[in-house]
Amino acid sequence: xxxxxxxxxxxxxxxxxxxxxxxxxxxxxxxxxxxxxxxxxxxxxxxxxxxxxxxxxxxxxxxxxxxxxxxxxxxxxxxxxxxxxxxxxxxxxxxxxxxxxxxxxxxxxxxxxxxxxxxxxxxxxxxxxxxxxxxxxxxxxxxxxxxxxxxxxxxxxxxxxxxxxxxxxxxxxxxxxxxxxxxxxxxxxxxxxxxxxxxxxxxxxxxxxxxxxxxxxxxxxxxxxxxxxxxxxxxxxxx
Length: 239
Known about the structure:
Elements: H1 2-16, E1 33-39, H2 43-48, E2 52-60, E3 65-66, E4 74-80, E5 88-94, E6 97-106, E7 109-112, E8 117-122, E9 127-133, H3 136-147, E10 161-163, E11 171-172, H4 181-191, E12 199-201, E13 205-207, E14 212-213, E15 220-221
């Protein structure tokens, strides 16, 4: 019997891993939606640093600008990969609207996906599956940047030290993961029984977004409140 239970535990782990957003609730009448992301393991770099944050933000496709700021507009997954987890699903709440994958951040370092990313829409009362995210190339790029001096090895401020313009979001859209629905439905049933809402595939669209400067114009930031008047990636220059 114990051997059978052990095999069952392994099977459930392979199906989707543990819940990573705590217990959440969602129904068709909810005023918010959920973003569901399948995420590949991040390896030792993620685990050794307590995981990473995957940041998504409200977005204006017309202006290529983040609408998120210190007052809200973010949909963030924190502590991803901190236990060197296997591939798994992650959930985060989001108000209705357009979103963009903005950055990956490890402690005080990060990669900004301003030059090559994906945008998608979220509706209230729905689970929006955006596909499978693979952080490995971004984590390797970040590690090499710290090693070769492109980023400081010691954080001088509480701000994130970002790589800009070159990082590419590695996202496989839902249509390339068919049949993805049965696995996600099974994971939600086992790990998030409070979610009783339609599951939809996001229509992810390639895009870029403008970066900005801080309130003093001294530091370049990855999107954020001051993003709208900055230049597109091809014209932008690092500080």
